[in-house]
């Protein structure tokens, strides 16, 4: 089971070796060198991993970042702020260091841009955030990035690759705030007995929304056969594409309902999805999908269907034969003392055949005044 999420675990610079031009970067979790909020809000679990502030126009706030070196050697770490932008799928990512900050990245001023730490050591670096007087109402995002100063780049072909980690800085300018998430589309694609579920979410508000996403595959009777999802931020006025791959298709395939939903807190002044009772939920239209059986299952199905068809044909032929025989036989009302063996002998027919045609079961007892069919005299020249 594979999941493509909007978070990449390593922030990566890729530069053309001859030109030394940075062309891409991503935000991710803290690796061997990184940082995190030094003074998180105990009442807000999201502040454990990202910096969250509501800041008025023209206001300055102070904060601190805990910079850590979890390697086994002394490291000089460079710190810097950059603007945050959405990736091509709508995920949260960071601009390159070489790109001039024009939004929230330009609002951050670190007390130092370089620290030297011993192995497995950490330190706290203060910084200030100053919002411009003409800042737009709503959310503004930036990144605090951490990069080893003298790290030897990894060489791959004609590329030089170095790494960084980064922490999101989410700043909200108060005013008329709005958070509203909708399902833009939901599609299911199949290839080689795998399904890919793609859910596109759209936030038409001016603050990001932390969403709990749930993708499910259910039988026509409601049983769950596949589930995936997680918590993802949908940035303000942006769309987010989430894709999930299921390589464990139901063995026998068949028709299934594919469902998806996203839950979020509509209160634009809060973060996270901890208040489960207050969450709004948007649903994708349930889709009826057919999943092909796996190869072995297809063989089993073909064999079983062929056996059933053969059995039905055989039963129909047997019934047709029985009816044809009955048309040439005559009804006989059982008298006291009649036995199936005696009647069969007098009719010159096998008693087993007589029992089979009349559907008489063991112990083959005949009931007085019961009506059965026996061969007519003209058809009783020899036993059948």
Overview of the molecule:
By secondary structure, this protein is mainly beta. The protein folds into three domains: 2-173, Immunoglobulin-like (Sandwich); 181-291, Immunoglobulin-like; 295-379, Membrane-bound Lytic Murein Transglycosylase D, Chain A. The chain has three helices and 23 strands. The strands form five sheets. Strands 2, 4, 6, 7, 9, 11, 12 and 13 form an eight-stranded mixed β-sheet that branches. Strands 16, 17, 19, 20 and 21 form a five-stranded antiparallel β-sheet that branches. A hairpin with a 4-residue loop joins strand 16 (209-219) and strand 17 (224-234). 28% of the residues are buried. The model is unreliable at 1-31 and 378-384 (pLDDT under 50).
Give the topology, please.
Blueprint lengths: L1 E3 L6 E6 L16 E5 L13 E4 L5 E10 L5 E12 L5 E3 L13 E3 L3 E4 L3 E10 L7 E11 L5 E3 L2 E15 L7 E11 L2 E10 L5 E11 L4 E11 L4 E8 L7 E12 L13 E5 L3 E5 L3 H34 E5 L6 H7 L4 H7 L13 E5 L9
Parallel strand pairs: 4-13
Antiparallel strand pairs: 1-18, 2-13, 3-5, 5-10, 6-7, 6-9, 6-11, 8-10, 11-13, 12-13, 14-15, 15-18, 16-17, 16-19, 19-20, 19-21, 22-23
In short:
The chain is mainly β and about 375 residues long. The protein has helices at about 295-330, 340-345, 350-355; strands at about 1-5, 10-15, 35, 50-55, 60-70, 75-85, 90-95, 110, 115, 120-130, 140-150, 155, 160-175, 180-190, 195-205, 210-220, 225-235, 240-245, 255-265, 280-285, 285-290, 330-335, 370-375.
């Amino acid at each position: 089971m594979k999941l493509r999420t909007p978070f990449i675990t390593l922030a990566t610079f890729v530069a053309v070796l001859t030109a030394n031009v940075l062309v891409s970067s991503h935000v991710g979790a803290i690796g061997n060198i990184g940082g995190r909020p030094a003074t998180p809000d105990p009442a807000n679990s999201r502040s454990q991993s990202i910096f969250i502030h509501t800041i008025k126009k023209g206001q300055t706030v102070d904060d601190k970042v805990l910079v850590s070196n979890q390697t086994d050697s002394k490291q000089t770490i460079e710190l810097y702020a950059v603007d945050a932008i959405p990736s091509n799928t709508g995920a949260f990512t960071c601009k390159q260091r070489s790109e001039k900050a024009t939004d929230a990245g330009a609002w951050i001023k670190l007390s130092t841009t370089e620290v030297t730490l011993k192995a497995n050591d950490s330190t706290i670096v203060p910084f200030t955030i100053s919002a411009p007087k003409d800042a737009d109402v709503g959310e503004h995002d930036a990144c605090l990035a951490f990069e080893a100063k003298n790290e030897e780049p990894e060489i791959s072909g004609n590329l030089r690759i170095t790494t960084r980690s980064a922490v999101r800085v989410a700043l909200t300018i108060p005013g008329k705030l709005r958070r509203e998430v909708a399902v833009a589309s939901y599609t299911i694609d199949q290839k080689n007995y795998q399904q890919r579920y793609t859910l596109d979410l759209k936030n038409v508000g001016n603050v990001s929304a932390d969403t709990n996403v749930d993708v499910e595959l259910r039988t026509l009777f409601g049983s769950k056969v596949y589930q995936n999802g997680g918590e993802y931020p949908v940035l303000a006025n942006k769309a987010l594409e989430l894709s999930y791959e299921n390589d464990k298709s139901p063995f026998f395939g068949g028709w299934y309902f594919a469902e998806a939903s996203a839950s979020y807190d509509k209160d634009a002044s809060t973060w996270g999805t901890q208040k489960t009772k207050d969450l709004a939920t948007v649903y994708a239209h349930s889709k009826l999908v057919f999943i092909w059986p796996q190869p072995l299952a297809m063989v089993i199905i073909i064999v079983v269907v062929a056996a059933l068809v053969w059995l039905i044909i055989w039963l129909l032929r047997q019934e047709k034969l029985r009816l044809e025989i009955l048309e040439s036989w005559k009804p006989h009302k059982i008298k006291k003392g009649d036995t199936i063996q005696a009647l069969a002998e007098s009719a010159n027919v096998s008693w087993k055949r007589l029992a089979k045609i009349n559907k008489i079961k063991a112990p083959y007892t005949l009931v007085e005044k019961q009506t059965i069919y026996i061969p007519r005299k003209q058809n009783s020249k020899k036993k059948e």
